[in-house]
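Researcher: I'd like a structural prediction for the single chain below. Treat it as a standalone chain; there are no partners to consider.
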Amino acid sequence: MNISTLLKHVNKLTPLDHAFEDDSVGLVIGDESNKVGNFIIGHELEESLLDYCKDNNVDTVVTYHPPPYKRIINEDEIETHIPDRITERFIDSSINVISIHTAQDVCKEGNADTLVELFNMSDVSIFANSVDNFGAGRKGTIKKLSPFDFKKYVENKLNTKIIRTNEYFDDIKEIQKIALLPGSGTQFIDEIINSVDVFITGDISHRYLLKADEARLGLIQVGHISTEIPGMKKFVKKLEKELDLKLNYIYRKYYE
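Model: Treating it as a single chain, here is the predicted structure.
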């Protein structure tokens, strides 16, 4: 199998053209004509993943997060992207990298839909649209819970102890309407701010905590990858079935 064939299988499960316009998805390192020998699934490019690839003769990685690049704007306002050190090391090691990122968030049975299943949500609708009717966020209803019980519910469903709330969260009497967005999604807060009790996502900045307090919206910040891992595990199983292969999925469990 070469990279172009693997890309077709990945695209069948996670249509890459549904990603956000400014996202780096598809083949981001390597060439479509390259042969695939051993490949794995990784959450992001980092040193321990590179070491694993070298130790196990892995030549291809399908990763969730795209490789990091530094964005530089010169005096003529021309934008260039310089590979981060870890990106350079994967390039220098001739390891092919395919990223699925927001295409995986928005697709059917992807990261967002998996969260809907985990939280047993009903009356579900989509927000944070990428293209057409595809979007990274989901909002809907769950069984009524107190703030204390809901935090425990989140910890259990996402297998995480990394929980942070805004100040208003503890003033909520009961929680029934929620919004979820895998990864970091506070830039879409205006789309749900008056329609749910609580919004769950990652990487919430201080200004959004204050904004939610003022709007009387509860916020829960979990570890960034905690909301992405459940959907990625489902992706791995689907790709294993598609290719009739057993695949390793590597991520930093510390940040779950």
